[in-house]
Amino acid sequence: MKMTCVLLDDDPIVLDLFRTYIGLTDALDLKATFTNPLEAHAFLIQQPVQVLFLDVAMPQLSGLELLRALRNPPLVVLLTAYPQYALEGFDLDVADFLLKPVSLERFLKAVTKVSNLARSQVIEADDSFFIRADAQYVRLYYHDVLYIEALKDFTKLHTTDGRTHLTLVNLKNLEEQLPPGLFVRTHRSYLVNARHIDSITNLEVRIGTCTLPLGQTYREQVTERLVSPFLIRRQH
Fold this sequence. Notes:
Residues 4-115 form the Response regulatory domain. The chain has helices at residues 12-23, 37-46, 63-69, 86-91, 104-119, 171-177, 216-226, 228-235, and strands at residues 3-8, 28-34, 51-55, 75-80, 96-99, 122-125, 128-133, 136-141, 145-151, 154-159, 164-167, 183-187, 190-193, 199-200, 204-207, 210-213. The chain has 236 residues and is of the alpha/beta class.
């Protein structure tokens, strides 16, 4: 699956070069390009992406200032002609640092790096796992997760303590990394911890006071997995 990305650089020649580079790889889906950092900031707030190729030296707002202004920044690859920005960039937990002029070979190395980082956004550890949220890795215990909600390229994890955690992993990729059998898909936008389901109807599942939709596509799968085994045990 391609990673969504945005390209921000105030030099149109650099934008054209990176459009060409991005078009040569199947790993990236370019959503927008910007020369104005304020326009890019407004876009990223409304339509978050997985990767941001970010120029450092720009008028009005530098790339580093823009990065600090994002509450949940994507994976960032800094672009600059000035190597002195590298240390400050890595202090902000950027994924990579490309020194202009950027060769295709070096660009592809950066793409490989962010691809590996994207796949490791969720790290399993025994009865718990880590997710990347708010520029840090947060440990969550499987039994504490009530359900997981899809929000475009993000997912929101709802936990028993009433808190939510937003991570830049889409629901399909997250589902593939969680233990099989523990969570059940009830809707294209919801993945539910089976242990916390209190009741099931033809249209919804209930977890405590929370009601979630049960899509027709998933209804048979949910009932066969959760209800049928219990009925068979009762018959014996």
